Amino acid sequence: MSRPAKVLLTGALLGVAVLASACGTEKISVPKSQPVLYQGAVLFNQRCSGCHTLSFAATHGSAQNVRTAQENNGPNFDIRCERPVARVLYAIQNGGFSGAIMPQNIVVGAQAQAVAQFVATYSGTKAPKVPGVVPCHEVPVGSIEVALTPSPTTTVPPQAQTLAGTPASKTHTKTSPSTAAPHGKAVTISSRAVPGLGTILVNSAGHTLYVFAPDKATKVTCTDGCASVWPPEYLPAGAHPVGTNGVKTSLLSSVADPTGGKVVTYNRWPLYTYVADTTPGSAAGQDVNLNGGFWWVITTSGTLVKKKP
């Protein structure tokens, strides 16, 4: 008999593991014998649980919780009793029902379908009971108000299809000595003007680079599941970072990743990309509170930009 996946509802992005509860939340177990639901549970933990699992939001709605209670209450499960699958897909593809809250296309293709099925199946399950509030499973689907009602045939935008796996241009590997860069090889960090954010750092492929608020004292804290969503900008062995287009080489360095390899830093901040940025110049991760903290772009002067685009 297959062992079930135990979805962690009270901690962000800790993988499929044993549950803990700080907000009165209970376990949701997804059996491996249901592969799509199981994959959806795993992906939900990796990509979504940093924001979409609040006990307060599970019973009171999400609008008043964004950026405030969402950060303070800690994760739980479900925000809007999202059902059916097409409605969840709409939210995934459009940045939430408002179009401005969650990162757009954080999962796409078959992965988005799996996450949507998981959320639609378990929406509101084990949410804490609040007097006077109707539990999700007792709310008729047709009575849930949404900004736009998606069609059951909702499709994924073609430009985001590659996100079902990490796009080739965004794949990061930790370089071993056998694949080390030639001695003295430079890794270029450049800049790009992005509307609403100014001139910010990008990597050699033109993808936006972010810093993670918890990474203080030049320390890499985004690892494992977090790093699958926010790939670190790794420095190949034998290489050194060089700035161009206004980026100051004097502010570039590197720091050891606790899981192996070295990550490029700027003004002592480790640099990361974001899997939802499918095109150069995109900054979908800006000012997002995900995986345990906020993510911000950084300017050529080394200043963090702490605002929405």
How does this model look, in words?
With 309 residues, this protein is an alpha+beta fold. It has 2 domains: 4-164, no CATH class; 168-305, no CATH class. Helix content is 17%, strand content 17%. It has 6 helices and 13 strands. The protein has helices at residues 35-48, 55-60, 69-72, 85-94, 109-122, 225-229, and strands spanning 4-7, 28-31, 186-194, 198-202, 210-212, 234-235, 240-243, 252-256, 262-266, 269-270, 288-290, 293-298, 304-305. Strand 9 (262-266) and strand 10 (269-270) form a beta hairpin. The longest helix is centred in the first third of the chain and has 14 residues, at 35-48. The radius of gyration is 20 Å and the shape is elongated. The relative contact order is 0.13. The model is unreliable at 1-25, 54-76, 141-173 and 175-183 (pLDDT under 50).
Summarize the structure.
With 309 residues, the chain is an alpha+beta fold.
List keywords for this structure.
309 residues; elongated; alpha+beta; 6 helices; 2 domains; 17% strand
